[in-house]
Amino acid sequence: MKQTILVTGGTGFIGSHTTVELINAGYDVVIVDNLSNSQENVIDGIEEITGVRPAFVKADCCDKEAMDKVMSDYPISGIIHFAASKAVGESVEKPLLYYRNNILSLVNLLELMPKHDVKGIIFSSSCTVYGQPDPENLPVTEEAPIKPAESPYGNTKQINEEIIRDDIASGAPIKAILLRYFNPIGSHPSAIIGELPTGVPMNLIPFVTQTAIGIREQLKVFGNDYDTPDGTCIRDYIYVVDLAKAHVKAMQRVLDTDSPQLEVFNIGTGNGCSTKQIIDAFEKATGVKLNWAYAPRRAGDIEKVWANPEKANKVLGWKADTSLEDTLKSAWNWQLKLRERGIQ
Ligand code: UD1
User: Fold this and answer.
1) What CATH code is carried by the domain that includes residue 155?
2) Count of domains in the chain?
3) Domain presence at residue 230
4) Residues 309-330: tens digit of each pLDDT
């Protein structure tokens, strides 16, 4: 019998790509999203790609009664919890909004899981929990120390990891996997779903593609005096479809094996890539020239961080295998498609 997975935040960027991969892997999916930062027509896109329309419930995970009803209405085996507020700058301005949205939603799910016999949860964590790793800890493994959070957003990731850890330590009859993502980029090869930032993008790749297409005049590269080979920051950019597939592997492990009750995995490529390298790779992959210039450092930026993904490679049997070139092409194709659709 097919297992049913509840995907919170399933119309968002990572949630929509993960829903596609879950359906491809044979799961039934129920999406819960409050559509605060995404569009309902993403469900049409998921259906167009997979031929299957996931169930959709418009609800807020902070609404415990609504979540109780979803879990009564569907035979949920596992949850992938993406629904969260995710803008670092906004979290500094509105910390309580972030603590409410990101923490209360998880607590609700954890409280409801035993009642509805939901076996496992995959939590979207972030490499932000490592802060700036000490040089001897690069590439960063799951054992690297957790650093004090730089923002309320980052703090919610750390607190949520601790909440899950404490819940399981207290004897909760659930299993959990914490996935620490590095920098997810790109879009589905069909260009039917992708990243839809609202307003001026804060993240690098949407800013790159919007500059390339003429929506933004110039990309500012924040800082060229970092202690890196070309002076610009280094990140581990991972293709969102590869990241989505990691969730499928994690869910299979939680539901179908007697794996430990709680595990943590880094989900990255293992390759550090500088901002300047991204610009060069984008121009090479697409043949489009970018208008860009160096600008002062952005407050709060980490100098360099990239993953050691060996644990996920070995234990989950997962590897990020899409090239940076194909990943950047997918981001560009998505931007072209948005223009074709008159959206951006
Ligand atoms: C940021 C958050 C991280 C969060 C992630 C969510 C910070 C410090 N970190 O990651 O916690 O999980 O977003 O998506 O805010 N860059 C430019 N010009 C731009 C935009 C970005 O040079 O216009 C550079 C940045 O300085 C950085 C790199 O590109 O070095 C990546 O930036 P971004 O995409 O914003 O991701 P992070 O800062 O790594």
Assistant:
1) 3.40.50.720
2) 1
3) no
4) 999 999 999 999 999 999 999 9
